[in-house]
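User: These chains co-purify. Model them together.
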Amino acid sequence: MALGRIRTDLALETKEKFEEDNVEIRGVIIEEDYNEEKDIRTTTVKIETENGAKAMGRPQGVYITLEAPNMSVPDEDYHREISKELAKHIRKLVPMEKELTALVVGLGNREVTPDALGPDVVSNLRITRHVIQEYGVQSMGREYANSISGLVPGVMAQTGMETLEIIKGVVDETKPDVVFAVDALAARSTKRLNRTIQITDTGINPGSGVGNHRNGLSEETLGVKVIGIGVPTVVDAATIVQDSMAHLLDTLEESEKKEFLEEMIAPSLHSMFVTPKDVDETVKRLSYTISEGLNMAFEQA
Amino acid sequence: MALGRIRTDLALETKEKFEEDNVEIRGVIIEEDYNEEKDIRTTTVKIETENGAKAMGRPQGVYITLEAPNMSVPDEDYHREISKELAKHIRKLVPMEKELTALVVGLGNREVTPDALGPDVVSNLRITRHVIQEYGVQSMGREYANSISGLVPGVMAQTGMETLEIIKGVVDETKPDVVFAVDALAARSTKRLNRTIQITDTGINPGSGVGNHRNGLSEETLGVKVIGIGVPTVVDAATIVQDSMAHLLDTLEESEKKEFLEEMIAPSLHSMFVTPKDVDETVKRLSYTISEGLNMAFEQA
Amino acid sequence: MALGRIRTDLALETKEKFEEDNVEIRGVIIEEDYNEEKDIRTTTVKIETENGAKAMGRPQGVYITLEAPNMSVPDEDYHREISKELAKHIRKLVPMEKELTALVVGLGNREVTPDALGPDVVSNLRITRHVIQEYGVQSMGREYANSISGLVPGVMAQTGMETLEIIKGVVDETKPDVVFAVDALAARSTKRLNRTIQITDTGINPGSGVGNHRNGLSEETLGVKVIGIGVPTVVDAATIVQDSMAHLLDTLEESEKKEFLEEMIAPSLHSMFVTPKDVDETVKRLSYTISEGLNMAFEQA
Amino acid sequence: MALGRIRTDLALETKEKFEEDNVEIRGVIIEEDYNEEKDIRTTTVKIETENGAKAMGRPQGVYITLEAPNMSVPDEDYHREISKELAKHIRKLVPMEKELTALVVGLGNREVTPDALGPDVVSNLRITRHVIQEYGVQSMGREYANSISGLVPGVMAQTGMETLEIIKGVVDETKPDVVFAVDALAARSTKRLNRTIQITDTGINPGSGVGNHRNGLSEETLGVKVIGIGVPTVVDAATIVQDSMAHLLDTLEESEKKEFLEEMIAPSLHSMFVTPKDVDETVKRLSYTISEGLNMAFEQA
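Assistant: Joint model of the four components:
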């Protein structure tokens, strides 16, 4: 079935798509883990070859996905568990053996509720760089402290600049060891919205995010390691229609299918997104969970 | 074609639905007017009988719809024209022969971008009641001044109260002559989003608005005249799927149809909405256009 | 020394003023308690007679003040201690022997940083009334649950209505057992800013708060018990000048003093307030501490 | 009278200080103009020599101050006049003979009401750079169009970075011809708050602004011309006390004076600011007036 490009920012969903179609991809390794007590499912997709990258439509690297059905529910203890899991994975991708300087970038538009995740994460972070630069590490009351800075670059309609231009400028000027880029993502399935976190060492890819960055943020474009952290908060409106129709389309001839898809999915749908009605509370809570995860990762001795 | 209840807050869309099906409804009068120069289409739907009300699924009264394709575009002069049109219709529905006391209520959730229209409108209004109460009408520098108050009640998840309870309390206490209730609406078609204003003397009906008020705001429930002003800013996600499939479904048997509809439209879709990606700028601009329309209506001598 | 009316919303500061002047007031009982470990000082001022009320310039009742120098510092564990103390005092003033229905009102202007405390508190509360009304207490997963509603009425410049009118309307309509009114207060001394919480069973008094309510919120005006909870976040600009000059003025003759005060304190100063530069973070943190205190008070079995 | 350093960001106030003391400064030229009809006073201070710069405590360059008593009043037509005046002065400082690329930077903390001026200005600007880069100047519907970008860098407590570092990075990357830096300023006198605009070709100087930038933004530090545009929205709390006491102090001996100043102005006052109670509406209005002035300056043919 060739429904055209189903847009998803989750490597996990691309993988599932292949499984549905019973296709095996070489160069892609998948590990799954389910913590029954915490009800957190962890899937690691490793794209190890150029071939795997081509098939998956995304760069070589590691994509870790935490799925937790209760992530969108207000239970403080449960969110703390997720923050811990997130911190653990971050520290695996970025070993903090020595003191680290990290820039956390909150991508997205703080004026659009489902896209405000990145900016919200940065506003809950414990920023330390200016204190360490002024008074030294010992002023932090700990022997060891990472130097953390934060940036909310805004979106192109607000700035007239590519997000990459702004971040590249700031990276060149302040020279962090690593960039963490936090973004609201688009999923293929509404079931995943606000209950999935993807962490990847490949950064943020073009076409990714609610606001659709044109140029990726990666080691290649920024010159330093980039860890991408994302939560799907929207589904493209066109995707929802395609998905809902999938079974129905199976009853039709191939030529009929194509015609229907072209006719039925109004072009305007491609500039629309689908999001849950309670997106405000959920994004607020999730952004706190992620900033706590980052705070934990940065502050562990 | 019985697709079940297509949800729309626009009387205009209900009317169109009947036209599509070539059904004529008694007790409903429709007038259309197109101003070519300004590119504003005005449709007035008058529901005059109990029968018409039943067929249309909404109370007897007048529903005026302004459609202006450029309403979502940033052109200050054009928006001023729409404000003027709006003011004109408001003054027809609420003749301001003597000094009026009006309460403008901004319904919706200011934390959810497409639902912030009502709260944004109230924050741009020229509030006068407290000045007139303290210093008299003459202090306004005009011979004649309406007494305008404003309220942003919030939504049930934030307050634990029905919006009706809050407004009824405030109306009983402050006794305005008329209530204007401004709300973000749900349309059936994405084409109408952010380019349509509905003004009605029936108030706000149950099931209306992005946040789905359970109890209507009307003369019956509040004891004073209620003018509802709304702009469709979202489409229910389920509606979009239904609509996209309409033609496809025509190829199927009636029994197959029902089955597909039940299977395909995931229940979770009913708690989702579809909205344009640039909803932040558009809602900000439209809320300004509407508050200017209200300001003009209130301030003309 | 008669510096005219030194404006303060803290009963504690009025008391100190008398102590400075070595005046003892009959009908006013004072208890002090200092928890060294937690570094929290608790002062209870009980105004027990009409005479005491006159001398203190505020109604008969209990005024509890928590002073904690670290309250303005970001230490989560410490803030939890303060929330606990607050919950303890609330439960003493409002015994929760049976299920309670409480309305929490967030006074102040959410657009002015030091005045946003009240609105911020309400947005962090766990609201339950709508759930209990719809699904019953058992739906809360506990045997026992208080019915909590919340309201952010706005300020007169935004609404054209007295805050009292709005709240009275909502109280008459929804009939809570008790109202909690949370407000940003004015202190006399900058030392108290953002490190003091006052809890009182007399509600909110006229002239109180950053925005200066003209009509008090009390059992007398609302018909139900009103607990006032406030944090001083500003000092009146005129007060700061007066206080800074106190010693200097002592060197002058009484007639010179009066002249200086009239000349020196520009009338415009009375429409100004003084606030710390880091007021944004501090108010955010304190509002969270207070809503947690309220959540704890409401949820203990 | 040596009250120590009276802090003001307005060259005009420094000049007045010298006049009070009957001191004439060489190398500083002053021109005044009063438009009676519009009630706008324009003062141009030109610091032309190194000596003048030393005396005035600020770099050589042009400082234009517009004073308009009604600037803090909501009169749309009057604000348009101020926007026009502002546009006129901008075009004198930055001749727009050929197409210009300009970066407008909104300094300050959007979470603190009086410091939100800069961020608010940027959010009302018409940003064009991304459209011109993608589709060319002709896509703007005009023969001629300046390329405008905007940036809200945040403050050091939020980012951990010097504002200069962020802006320098972005300037190096995007290479604008000129930077406009908009900031909320500190005045010495409350009379000037929210009714004065200062425009200078010297950029933003250290110690300037509500948030106190440590490193200036100037041609020297950024490598491109920097126009500073500022409105005083606060007065330092310590300044208000000093100023109120000025006359009183005149009655004292020099040695007494010093003692009083040291004792009376509590160190905590230096971390406080004074601002009008209606700062929210005023800053919103002024930021709109300034962005309109910039829009006009950029869009005139």
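The two ends of chain A are 51 Å apart (CA to CA).
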